[in-house]
Amino acid sequence: MTVIDWDVAVNTGVRLVRPGPQVDLSDARQAVAQLRELSTVAAGHVREFTGMNPLEPAGPAVIVDRPGWIRANVDGFRVVIEPVLEQMGADRLNNSPAGSLTSAVGSRITGVQLGAVLSYLAGKVLGQYELFLPPDPDGTLPTGRLTLVAPNIVNAEREMDVDPRDFRLWVCLHEETHRMQFTATPWLRGHVQGLMQELLLSSEMDAGDLIGRLRAAGEAVADAVRGGGESNLITAIQSPEQSEIMDRVTAVMSLAEGHGDFVMDAVGPEVVPSVATIRARFQKRRESANPIDRIMRQLLGMDMKMRQYEEGAAFVRAVVAEVGMTEFNRVWTSPETLPTLAEIRNPTAWVDRVVRPAAVNE
């Protein structure tokens, strides 16, 4: 039984996504070529600054348009979600009161919903490290892929009126840091995928629970439209057990995003002359979204993601300032050395738990 019609998700997203900025063909080709080149340049800077070493070849980033980003993300969702659905088993889905919602009609509705969300995000995302790709039958391709969304990068640099090469390299520094995190730390991909699947499997709902969660989600929408509170669809449909898992997901994603922001700004002055201007204008752009964007960001939990960047970057800055980059890199040793959400907000607690005992034992 298909719970999400993936083809419907792709087709909906591609149909709804807005076209990118008007760019001459020669300018578009130049942007694509430069982004490929700068992603490789950025990889060298990130390796040198962080002291981390990738265990698989990187190669240049893959450059996509908005529909290409949607297709790639649907593939990623499939890799994470389909094993969970198999684990749940058809019986649990068919026999539960919620099962009737995931009939053929339901699968098309969820496909449309996923496509609609992705069509919105496809106009916003500058780049990402795609962690979850379909398996490579030959076993020759890297397990993850760095993707840059060329029309969004061009659109952002135009809106902010910043130097295109500087901005493109700055974006590449952030995204290459993500690639380094996962290619230098072999266990991290499996750990994140395990957390995601644990989150999805932790939802044991009967019909009453489901209706209650949907009502809470409806209230979150109304609350966001009114401009009140901090409701979002992610927290609205969580059980207490899921909230605990979500805290672990939030901690690791805050570390990853904050580390990316820290590296892009720390490397920046050496190789991106206008980095201070870019950061100031980028921050202003983040904060001055139009009302519809603000509502969407809130509903999709993107405001929560903005806080992850800030809290995570503050954690990395504080730890590196206290113990240096080499000691900070102990964070990538194992799942046990990752910071908890409480430690993200109290970096000294992580240093006391992980760095100081390790230094004593050496």
Give a structural overview:
It comes from Nocardiopsis dassonvillei (strain ATCC 23218 / DSM 43111 / CIP 107115 / JCM 7437 / KCTC 9190 / NBRC 14626 / NCTC 10488 / NRRL B-5397 / IMRU 509) (Actinomadura dassonvillei). It holds the Pfam family Zincin_2. This is Coenzyme F420 biosynthesis-associated protein. The chain is mostly helical and 362 residues long. It has two domains: 1-195, Up-down Bundle (Lysin), CATH 1.20.150.30; 239-361, no CATH class. 70% of the residues lie in helices and 3% in strands. The protein has 16 helices and three strands. It has a three-stranded mixed beta sheet, with helices on both faces. Helix 1 packs antiparallel against helix 3, helix 3 (66-95) crosses helix 7 and helix 10 crosses helix 13 (302-323). The longest helix is centred in the last third of the chain and has 32 residues, at 240-271.
What's this model, at a glance?
By secondary structure, the chain is mostly helical.
Present the secondary structure layout:
Elements: H1 6-16, H2 25-50, E1 62-64, H3 66-95, H4 104-121, E2 127-130, E3 145-149, H5 150-160, H6 164-183, H7 186-201, H8 207-226, H9 233-236, H10 240-271, H11 275-287, H12 291-299, H13 302-323, H14 325-328, H15 341-344, H16 347-361
Parallel strand pairs: 1-3
Antiparallel strand pairs: 2-3
Protein name: Coenzyme F420 biosynthesis-associated protein
Pfam families: Zincin_2
